[in-house]
């Protein structure tokens, strides 16, 4: 494996079985107010200020979807696990949000329906990430925005790295986007509920034409309070 690409193991996980305890991880359930506030601040700095249509791919139990909905966005979440989707629906009951069971690589939604495709810790586990990104690009309206949170982690035993490195991901996005920015996240322990020493980052990739359509530049990252 070269150019920052590492072994993929996520395909073998039974996500239905994992659903009941999924939110126990601090950065999954966001139950700790400090962790929740840190993610909310990051998300607010990444997303457009205007109300937008957001697709949360591999939404899990809906924690990021909930933050986006609380910030006024219309959310569609997709996850292949019915158990995860059930939990997401319960978590966002009464919100402007819809959750669908489907393949993250090919979400069951129409083309050019979304202003933002939000993906957290999903792309690394999918085969052929370049093809997946091209498909997701077709789901964005002209000038839409990718918000991709990924990284490279070490498994417990043996200590084999898994994930997708930032240089690999930015290379895959280069033909699809007009602006690409990497925001390093490893040094903000508030996001993870603990200190981490592996590679964690967000990539914001803006498709060609967004700046001309909106008359604005990509938002600068806010410093979480």
Helix residue percentage:
25-40%
Specify the overall morphology. Answer: globular
Radius of gyration: 16 Å
Structural class: alpha/beta
Major beta sheet, specifics? 8 strands, mixed
Low-confidence stretches: 1-10, 209-225
Q: Give the topology string: H per helix, E per strand.
A: HHHEHEHEEHEEHEEH
Indicate the proportion of strand residues. 15-25%
SSE map:
Blueprint: H1 15-22, H2 26-29, H3 33-46, E1 53-57, H4 63-70, E2 74-79, H5 82-91, E3 97-101, E4 114-120, H6 129-139, E5 140-154, E6 161-163, H7 166-173, E7 179-184, E8 199-206, H8 210-214
Parallel strand pairs: 1-2, 1-4, 2-3, 4-5
Antiparallel strand pairs: 5-6, 5-8, 7-8
Helix pairs in contact: 1-5
Task: Describe this protein's structure.
With 225 residues, the protein is an alpha/beta fold. The chain is 30% helix and 24% strand. The chain has helices spanning 15-22, 26-29, 33-46, 63-70, 82-91, 129-139, 166-173, 210-214, and strands spanning 53-57, 74-79, 97-101, 114-120, 140-154, 161-163, 179-184, 199-206. Helix 1 (15-22) packs parallel to helix 5. Mean pLDDT is 86; it is low at 1-10 and 209-225.
Q: Briefly, what is this?
A:
The chain is of the alpha/beta class and 225 residues long. The protein has helices at 15-22, 26-29, 33-46, 63-70, 82-91, 129-139, 166-173, 210-214, and strands at residues 53-57, 74-79, 97-101, 114-120, 140-154, 161-163, 179-184, 199-206.
Notable traits:
globular, 225 residues, alpha/beta, 8 strands, disordered C terminus, disordered N terminus, eight-stranded mixed β-sheet
């Amino acid at each position: 494996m070269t150019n920052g690409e590492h072994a993929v193991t996520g395909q073998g996980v039974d996500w239905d079985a994992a659903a009941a305890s999924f939110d126990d991880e601090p950065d999954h359930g966001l139950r700790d107010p400090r962790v929740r506030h840190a993610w909310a601040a990051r998300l607010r700095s990444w997303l457009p200020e205007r109300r937008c249509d957001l697709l949360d791919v591999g939404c899990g139990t809906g924690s990021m979807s909930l933050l986006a909905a609380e910030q006024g966005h219309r959310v569609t979440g997709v996850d292949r696990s019915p158990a995860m989707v059930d939990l997401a629906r319960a978590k966002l009951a009464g919100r402007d949000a819809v959750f669908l069971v489907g393949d993250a690589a090919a979400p069951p939604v129409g083309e050019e329906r979304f202003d933002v495709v939000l993906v957290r810790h999903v792309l690394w586990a999918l085969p052929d990430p370049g093809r997946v990104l091209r498909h997701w690009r077709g789901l964005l309206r002209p000038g839409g925005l990718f918000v991709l949170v990924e990284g490279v982690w070490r498994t417990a035993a043996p200590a084999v790295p898994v994930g997708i490195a930032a240089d690999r991901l930015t290379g895959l996005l280069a033909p699809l986007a007009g602006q690409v920015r990497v925001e390093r996240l490893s040094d903000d322990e508030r996001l993870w509920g603990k200190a981490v020493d592996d590679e964690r980052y967000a990539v914001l990739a803006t498709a060609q034409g967004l700046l001309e359509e909106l008359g604005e530049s990509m938002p600068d990252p806010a410093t979480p309070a």
